[in-house]
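Field log, afternoon session.

UNIT: design team B
ACTIVITY: writing a sequence onto a fixed backbone
BACKBONE:
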């Protein structure tokens, strides 16, 4: 059943939480996605079956949480994730980050904002405002984005220059990620939205951990929501929960 957490910074975050006796799992969804996505629901069902606690939620401006998407940036969503994990979970958590959720997951772990057991990244998109947007633009296009304060990610998704600037404050690939827990990264080779080279970069940036793996799906695209892909994610979750 969906519940709501009222934050001390005047936002209301919608969430679903399952209590289990085993290690807790937190699902971090992607940009403009919400907690009702196929992967989130499938992993929640796996958690129930295997007696793990499980938390999924909507960032501010997403799903049924308060606010409008255009009014928020990466910093806001990192704060949402930190707040809800701190308030609603106990002990170390397995963080499962999908796309932009992978960026938030890495920011939480790198900056030690929450108690993290291990990480599973699904088509992770850390630093995408720099890696996939700003660094690819010509000087002329950059000037247009600054003047108009907007950039179209797709036909129905626009972000502001402020959003891109905020991304610069939250970069995780600009220095080593000193994390000691297990890290499993799963990425589709056919992903045209977030190339798998980003997962390769993450792999190289993680230090301290002796268990870092990158699994590539030959025919996998960005969503990683096909039946066989969901089964692979469950397998990774099972394995990492034993580490």
């Amino acid at each position: 059943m969906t519940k709501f957490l009222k934050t001390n910074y005047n936002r209301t975050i919608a969430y679903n939480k399952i209590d289990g006796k085993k290690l807790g799992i937190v699902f971090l969804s992607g940009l403009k996605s919400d907690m009702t996505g196929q992967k989130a629901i499938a992993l929640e069902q796996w958690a129930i079956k295997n007696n793990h606690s499980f938390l999924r939620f909507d960032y501010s401006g997403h799903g049924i949480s308060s606010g409008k998407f255009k009014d928020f940036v990466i910093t806001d969503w990192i704060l949402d994730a930190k707040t809800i994990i701190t308030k609603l979970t106990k002990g170390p958590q397995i963080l499962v980050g999908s796309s932009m959720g992978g960026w938030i997951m890495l920011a939480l772990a790198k900056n030690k904002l929450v108690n993290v057991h291990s990480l599973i990244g699904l088509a992770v998109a850390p630093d995408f405002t720099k890696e996939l947007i700003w660094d690819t633009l010509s000087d002329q296009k950059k000037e247009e984005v600054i003047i108009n304060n907007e950039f179209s990610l797709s036909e129905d998704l626009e972000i502001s220059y402020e959003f891109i600037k905020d991304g610069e404050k939250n970069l995780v690939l600009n220095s080593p990620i000193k994390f000691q827990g297990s890290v499993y990264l799963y990425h589709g080779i056919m992903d045209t939205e977030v190339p798998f080279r980003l997962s390769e970069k993450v792999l190289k940036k993680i230090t301290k951990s002796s268990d870092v793996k990158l699994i590539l799906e030959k025919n996998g695209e960005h969503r990683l929501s096909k039946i066989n892909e969901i089964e692979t994610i469950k397998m990774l979750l099972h394995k990492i929960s034993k580490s």
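LOG NOTE: The CA atoms of residues 74 and 167 lie 6 Å apart.
NEXT ACTIVITY: expression trials, pending approval
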